[in-house]
Write the structure tokens for this entry.
Amino acid sequence: MFDNLRGVVHFKAHGDRLYAFIDEVRHKKVGCRRQRMENDVLYATCYRRDFYEIEEIAKCMGVEISSVAQKGAVFKAIKYRRRFGVAAGILIALAVIFYFSNVITHIEITGCETVEADVVSAALANCGIEQGAFIPSIDFDSCERKILLAIDDIAWVGIRHSAGRVVVDIHEMVEAPLMLDENTPCNIVAAYDAQIVDISVLEGVSCVQRGYTVKKGDILISGVQEGIKGLTTVKHSLGSVVGIYNLSVSFEQELSSLVRVETDSITQKNVLNVLSLEIPLYFNGVEFADYNLKTSERQLYLFGKRLPICINENEYIECGYIEKVYDEQQAQALLYEQKQRYEENFLENTEILSQKVNIIIDENKAVAQIFYTLKGEIGEKNEILFKNFN
């Protein structure tokens, strides 16, 4: 390996004072190996650096010397020493490698659900994390703390980078559900006028039994208890009360309305994005008063590496308004869609015993009045206020 780097010269020498030449080379301790004589011709090898000195000795001794073969990477490099394009190409390649390793070319934000990615990007930019920033000059630990202080809805943030790619992992705050503390004294009261069909008490005093009829607001399970010695205590009532109750809802659907639709007029405007600097590739702006925008990104690569350069292809679709008129059948179908969504969202855990649907249609709208008979949980917690209790 080292011979390949230093360069090895195979040479031959001949002349009347050949042996004196060999003695002089040995006397001056010049590296000369693999010496052999054939027909009064000396064959040997030496390193490239020593060959110049051996040539001087041969010249002084009147011995003719010539190179037979040259081996090693150093000789190949010498051939290109005046080819400045090769050197420039190597320098450019090294500069590109340095750039992609130490400059931010792409920022990826993950974990955003309620927090907008633009808000996180703005906070990162305030910390110096943006496209084109020099990575070794960024204190990522300090940036993580600053982002936590800047955005209240973030519980944890982690920033990591690989070459020019920076990944920001976001964990958002989980909102605590609104509920009474288990130690807060409360009653369970009726949310509807209903007939009790089942009751289960885990904590508190039952005020009703199966078959009872109650009105909205009546106490079903009381958190107020009287002890043997006449002492009154208040507790957090726990239990389940199932009843049969009536519920009415109504939905409306206009028979005519203005609907926003896309037209056939489409124009495309491209933008060159270089390190977040947007350069329009067009002269005239968008002429549409109202439009939908569809954006796609065409990333540029060099030698398989992602460049901080891309082309944003923006497609503008003109929009207008038309009057949509519904007949009776279409209006009824839309009302039943509203009814289905309501049942999926609000009556998922409730049994529908019966229902009656009345549809009234006039000149302007259709109205659906729905009367349900339901079986389900009717109790809701109601905090005991001590000022009223006393």
Q: What stands out?
A: Residues 102-172 form a domain with the Ubiquitin-like (UB roll) fold (CATH 3.10.20.310).
